[in-house]
Amino acid sequence: MAARIPGLIALFDVDGTLTAPRKVVTPEMSKFMQELRKVVTVGVVGGSDFVKISEQLGNTVTNDFDYVFSENGLLAHKEGKLIGTQSLKDFIGEEKLKEIINFTLHYIADLDIPIKRGTFIEFRSGMLNVSPIGRNCSQEERDEFEKYDKVQNIRSKMVSVLREKFAHLNLTFSVGGQISFDVFPQGWDKTYCLKYLDEFSEIHFFGDKTYKVGGNDHEIYESERTIGHTVTSPEDTMKQCKALFLGN
């Protein structure tokens, strides 16, 4: 078996890169990642919390990948062990947090969209996840909202309002997935995970939302510390990795 390439790590987004959006990883991709691990160090960085990443990539995710960064790396695992956490509540304070949540809920209450479900704001350890339709929607409703949003720009308009309202708090609003966007302090995007990767001189990042406006992979894709790769699907991820690291 070929030895791992020293000082090199391949880092992957989850939705649209290793899996279809909010879907479970395929056996083919799981097998491919284990083959890739024989050649390079492999990590995953997602905006979702650890529970959701585990649902998609499996309960053994911290053993199947060398690094697992959930919530952009605000919860960090290395070789199966927790190595770092960060708290939005501690960082920003309860009063400012309540101000953001109250305003956002009022905005959603006045928003006229075809359907609304439940869980419009999900409080995570390092960020708020905001969904105009509500995270309790079905997969069919999720797909329909994604189409509707592409035409009506519901999320991007909402982000513009929030960005102006809370400019004094230096927050980042990052649109990702099909139905929501994340709210977190500036610098807490996916580049946050890079603080744990100082031992690597070559960091390859693979993501599907690498575009500048609203793409939650953009900052790490553009980082001077990474070599960014835009993918269009999990199948494209495998194809690019085969060419780059496996020589086929």
TrEMBL record:
Sequence positions that bind alpha-D-mannose 1-phosphate: 22, 124, 135, 142, 180, 182
Keyword Metal-binding: yes
EC number(s) per entry: 5.4.2.8
Catalytic activity: alpha-D-mannose 1-phosphate = D-mannose 6-phosphate
UniProt keyword Magnesium present: yes
Subcellular location: Cytoplasm
Subunit description: Homodimer.
Protein known as: Phosphomannomutase
The organism of origin for this protein: Lupinus albus
